[in-house]
TrEMBL record:
Pathway recorded for this protein: Cofactor biosynthesis; NAD(+) biosynthesis; quinolinate from L-kynurenine: step 2/3; Amino-acid degradation; L-kynurenine degradation; L-alanine and anthranilate from L-kynurenine: step 1/1
Positions carrying N6-(pyridoxal phosphate)lysine: K231
Function: Catalyzes the cleavage of L-kynurenine (L-Kyn) and L-3-hydroxykynurenine (L-3OHKyn) into anthranilic acid (AA) and 3-hydroxyanthranilic acid (3-OHAA), respectively.
UniProt protein name: Kynureninase
Alphabetized UniProt keyword annotations: Hydrolase, Pyridine nucleotide biosynthesis, Pyridoxal phosphate
Protein family according to the UniProt entry: Belongs to the kynureninase family.
Swiss-Prot/TrEMBL catalytic activity: L-kynurenine + H2O = anthranilate + L-alanine + H(+); 3-hydroxy-L-kynurenine + H2O = 3-hydroxyanthranilate + L-alanine + H(+)
Complexes and interactors: Homodimer.
Length: 419
């Protein structure tokens, strides 16, 4: 106990010093965080940005309530998918005119996978990560069935070896830069280059990366990318997703869902489909204006923010959390599955414990919101825009205490379908 107390005291001093020197500390005020809650689940759902309630009130009461259908023109609703897409583009390193927002991540991912396969019609293999988020794997299988392709499940670290023999047969390589379970960060530059050296396209799922670290999709030569709006972008539950397609592919881009809003002249209501120029051809249906404009307002939290500073603070936060866990939790049977090497860490730390579910439930009862992934992973997402080092020490200290006290149910009843 004495050792734990002395370690906690030293960590408190470190946290106070690091937070005092944090240039991003004022950005926390751009979020409406509940009092007395440490929120470490922003890698699943970002908290409410302060700009969103007023923006939604205006959309509902003035633009919709008073402007009615005229707001498609007067309020710029029709242009919103491209306007919000460009705003996201600035966060992922994309020049204007290459990113569109709207529809769900699953729809955007299906569009990207199918369009990528169409750009390499003579290649029969679609490569994806066996540890990818389930939707990515399900949709890879769906596109393969639709196009008569074969899926190969290749871990990112094994890609160069796989391409050495199968490269000429690979149409597209679909990965995420961050492992959603462990927080491990993969080398986007090296993997994109490996795909290109084999003549394949590189498609990236940026859900756990957009807004958390500089991505530079243009500079890296990424071909296509998708991402959600509700994690680090804090666009709200079910916020629209985005699709990026490098400009060099626009002329040949064929999307599997040619909706009317992606037509070159949508209001001509022509019998046959003619794709709009550029990324606008990736629009599908009528834009979800309420959620799209909530996302647009949420993105203002990044105004004036340097993503390199975000990355530096994120690494400081995750490094500090790992030190806290090593000092206070490792003696209690917790182990980290997140790489200690800063260059291989995303913006989360994952700890393994056999009672992860029960501990996550008990933590929430003590004002710390994290999450778990079955069967034994506790995930702590950090967002440099609002998370402090003090928050992390509070979380680890409370987890230490409830573990020592055995103040949790190892097999709790589920509070609902979402874990």
């Amino acid at each position: 106990m004495t050792t734990a107390l002395s370690a906690a005291a030293a960590l408190r001093e470190q946290a106070a010093r690091l937070d005092a020197d944090d240039p991003l500390a004022p950005v926390r005020e751009r979020f409406l965080l509940p009092p007395d809650v440490v929120y470490l689940d922003g890698n699943s759902l970002g908290p409410l940005p302060a700009a969103v309630p007023a923006a939604l009130d205006d959309v509902v009461r003035r633009q919709w309530g008073t402007g009615l259908i005229g707001s498609w023109n007067a309020a710029g609703w029709w242009q919103a998918p491209l306007r919000v897409g460009d705003a996201i583009g600035t966060l992922i390193g994309a020049a204007p005119g290459q990113t569109v927002a709207g529809d769900s991540t699953s729809v955007q991912l299906f569009t990207a996978l199918d369009a990528a396969a169409a750009l390499r019609p003579d290649r029969p293999l679609l490569v994806t990560d066996p540890g990818h988020f389930p939707t990515d794997r399900y949709l890879a299988d769906a596109v393969a069935r639709r196009r008569g392709l074969q899926v190969r499940h290749v871990p990112p670290l094994d890609l160069p070896h796989f391409l050495a023999t199968e490269g000429p047969r690979v149409a597209v390589v679909s990965y995420s830069p961050v492992d959603f379970r462990t927080g491990e960060l993969y080398d986007m530059r090296a993997l994109t280059r490996a795909a290109h050296d084999a003549g394949a396209l590189a498609l990236w799922d940026l859900c756990h990366a957009a807004g958390a670290l500089p991505l530079e999709v243009d500079a890296l030569g990424v071909d296509l990318a998708v991402g959600c709006g509700y994690k680090f972008l804090s666009g709200g539950p079910g916020a629209p997703a985005f699709l990026y397609v490098a400009q060099r592919h626009h002329a040949a881009l064929e999307t599997p869902l040619p909706g009317w809003t992606g037509h070159a002249d949508p209001f001509a209501l022509a019998r046959d489909y003619t794709p709009a120029p550029g990324i606008a051809r990736a629009r599908i249906g009528t834009p979800p204006i309420l959620s799209l404009l909530a996302l647009e307002a949420a993105l203002t939290a990044f105004d004036g923010v340097d993503l390199h500073q975000v990355r530096a603070k994120s690494l400081s936060l995750t490094g500090f959390l790992l030190r806290c866990a090593d000092a206070l939790l490792a003696p209690l049977g917790f182990t980290s599955v997140t790489p200690s090497d800063p260059g291989r860490r995303g913006s989360q730390v994952t700890l393994r414990h056999p009672h992860a579910h029960g501990l996550a439930v008990a933590l929430a009862g003590r004002g710390v919101v994290a999450d778990m992934r079955a069967p034994d992973l506790l995930r702590f997402g950090v967002n440099a825009l609002f998370t402090s080092h003090g928050d992390l020490l509070t979380a680890v200290s409370r987890l230490h205490d409830l573990t020592v006290e055995a103040a949790y149910d190892p097999a709790p009843l589920t509070g609902g379908p979402v874990t």
